[in-house]
Write a structure and sequence with these properties.
The protein has one domain (about 5-205): 3-Layer(aba) Sandwich (Rossmann fold). The radius of gyration is 16 Å and the shape is globular. The chain is an alpha/beta fold. About 40% of the residues lie in helices and about 20% in strands. The structure holds S-adenosylmethionine.
Length: about 210
């Protein structure tokens, strides 16, 4: 792993631990709410295995998950598009990407994910942009259904749509159960829930 990425990931892991222990006072909207380290390692391996070159992320926060994705694409210099609505988190994410020396691989788009996804979808359907190899859903959980429907056509066959928080926090479980059932109604997908970190839904477009 590139040293500059490793050191930013370690800094963010310390911060995340403090937030979880509630040892620091912080507003809910400023919390990192990041994936776990094990989840980061898992996606890092998966992205290397599928030789991902184009990644779409919904919910950047301060860029912890994005850095794990960027690390997996150091050899092929693949690109990430990541969407976030909170401007102060975007500033923190951009500073982290600079510090990790991966800013040139990452395009952060500020705004509401649905509207941005509709624009991205248009540019792929009109042939201006290529489909994604991997998409990661980690923003407002209620909208996952709409995100999935917009993302499925813009991921390549053999590409993966992953979703965080399938099992934890437990308050999301009833909603996530419906979401998983919803995915299973779709043709040409295969899907599995992994009991890893907060619970990851891994769906391949077949
Ligand atoms: C769980 S955090 C993302 C954590 C990040 N993926 C990581 O693991 O490091 C969810 C983020 O989604 C953002 N978000 C929530 N709803 C959104 C929306 N409708 N459009 C864009 N961003 C949104 C929040 O501001 C928050 O930073």
């Amino acid at each position: 792993m590139k040293e500059s990425i490793k050191s930013v990931l370690q800094k963010l892991e310390k911060r995340s631990k403090l937030e979880k222990l509630e040892n620091i006072e912080i507003n809910q909207e400023d919390r990192m709410l990041a994936i776990t380290k094990e989840t980061g390692i898992f996606y890092n391996i998966l992205l290397k295995a599928i030789k991902a070159k184009r990644i779409l992320e919904i919910g950047t926060s301060v860029g912890y998950s994005t850095l794990w994705f960027a690390d997996a694409m150091q050899k092929n210099q693949g690109k990430i598009v990541t969407i976030e609505q909170n401007p102060s988190k975007i500033s923190r994410a951009r500073a982290n990407f600079e510090e990790a020396s991966v800013a040139n691989q990452i395009k952060v788009i500020e705004g509401k994910a649905i509207q941005i996804l509709e624009q991205i979808s248009e540019s792929i359907k009109s042939g201006k942009k290529k489909q994604f190899d991997f998409a990661f859903l980690d923003a407002d959980k209620e909208q996952n259904f709409e995100y999935f429907d917009l993302i499925l056509p813009i991921v390549r066959v053999g590409g993966i749509i992953a979703t965080d928080n399938i099992l934890y926090p437990e308050k999301f479980r009833p909603l996530m159960k419906k979401y998983v059932e919803y995915i299973k109604t779709k043709p040409n997908v295969q899907t599995i829930t992994l009991d890893l970190g907060n619970g990851e839904q891994i769906t391949i477009k077949t």
